């Protein structure tokens, strides 16, 4: 990466297309990453097209079809592909609508944590001194709590619900971005191209966000995919504990919480929402591994 | 080494002060009147309000209140539960052994399987076995453990009827706690079958809590081994004609363990978060379930105290890991 930094600082970058194809070359070398990407695209399509492809409304209760098993089981009905839950709602339809929630949570939480973390991290790394110390001690404090516990307590303060859960999770995930950004900025800020920009009269803001930051993005993008999957997992966990999205929202964790009492009677109400969480998180983590290989040769595992 | 220790401690103290400040402010950030929240009384006359406020010291300046709170914390006073009226530290000491026992068993499960799997995958790098194992590890790493626990209950408790669904031991057995560790206490009790019952109650929760650490340890061991196996001294050891077992087991593994130990230490925080979910699923009477129950009961002093104690534990474990790291890896000390 070091030898391309000088070229990257030019506003119009002639090598962008080449870099993109190089990126794709490394990314597609990782078979798992490509599978993850394909699954993720299917999930996004399923979420976006949910109103068109779901056979039933997610909150519609069919009183004549309570706790029906999946269609391929003996008592299953073809109209309810993955069976129905305890109040007769179609699980397949609820899962597709749940994909909307999970992906939305992932995007919002990651953006909040990423943007907040970048701003704070760039400031800490660029200015150093007591500002840096203060910020890093604050981040140490947040990191001293187990993330789920802190999110749980924050939600207890703010009140249960999806919005508050997202704010809490974003706050808990943010220190990782701050640390990464700070380290990257500290490594970059004395490089020649930064000094050159400073000598040319660039101000602090320009140096921080236009000159240095674009060269620190690789580890941040990798961390963002990790946060994306963490956000989905934590939001589902909060939903499962009754502190996230509230029933009857078809959020996967909340669906699992409602299904808990039927685990020994109706395996399908428990199995499918969790499987949806696992597949989503796994697909994102697979992509994360591929992104790491493609973007950051230094972090390459093997 | 001593200076290294002092340096770590110098970072730890402000962090602890910050954590205690957060725990202290927590009740004051809640919507509503702290007097009502801390006393648990919802309706009271202005005189009674002033009385309680004075008794709880809430009429003093906040800095005095904070120092007073900190003074109490340093003497082991973490407040009093609104619901049970017993002290938070007492409740914690009563419940902590259950979490500790579960966490230790989960960690043993994770280490005993994770390290050999990682070493094996590194030795067979690129093979089908390596890819399969690392694929499974990534599935484990992506696992929503609350669902994983429910699945295991369906299979092992429901279909196969091998293990119990919840709790630490069958209600058939009763004996006074000696150590607080059910495995040890049941073995000491001379009640036939008690140990077996305690052990069977531990299996599923340990697997559930250990799953993510297992995956992380396996992945980390593999990459640390790969790095070390490419080093010159390993090649020298091979060239000297040492047996592959000596080369891998003694020369490579010892050095590969340095980052793995850090990883294991970092998993303690992951485990305490995982304990919240695992204990809720298996009705395990430890501090994770205690925190969730307290959130639902709005037992704010317990949430406040528990938050601070748990953060304190994690900070101490991290300090211990740092020191251990400095001890086994002299490069870091300077």
TrEMBL record, chain A:
It comes from the Bacteria. It holds the Pfam family OppC_N. Keywords: Cell membrane, Membrane, Peptide transport, Protein transport, Transmembrane, Transmembrane helix, Transport. It is a multi-pass membrane protein. InterPro entries: BP-dependent_transpt_permease, MetI-like, MetI-like_sf, OppC_N. Residues 99-288 form the ABC transmembrane type-1 domain. The chain crosses the membrane at residues 33-53, 101-128, 148-173, 262-284. Its main location: membrane. The keyword Cell membrane applies. It is found in: Cell membrane. Belongs to the binding-protein-dependent transport system permease family. This is ABC transporter permease subunit. The lineage of its organism: Bacteria, Pseudomonadati, Pseudomonadota, Alphaproteobacteria, Hyphomicrobiales.
TrEMBL record, chain B:
Its main location: membrane. PROSITE patterns: ABC_TM1 (PS50928). Keywords: Cell membrane, Membrane, Transmembrane, Transmembrane helix, Transport. The chain crosses the membrane at residues 9-30, 100-123, 135-160, 198-218, 256-282, 302-328. It is found in: Cell membrane. It is a multi-pass membrane protein. InterPro entries: BPD_transp_1_N, MetI-like, MetI-like_sf. The keyword Transmembrane helix applies. It comes from the Bacteria. Pfam families: BPD_transp_1, BPD_transp_1_N. Residues 96-325 form the ABC transmembrane type-1 domain. Belongs to the binding-protein-dependent transport system permease family. PANTHER family: DIPEPTIDE TRANSPORT SYSTEM PERMEASE PROTEIN DPPB-RELATED. This is ABC transporter permease subunit. It comes from Mesorhizobium liriopis.
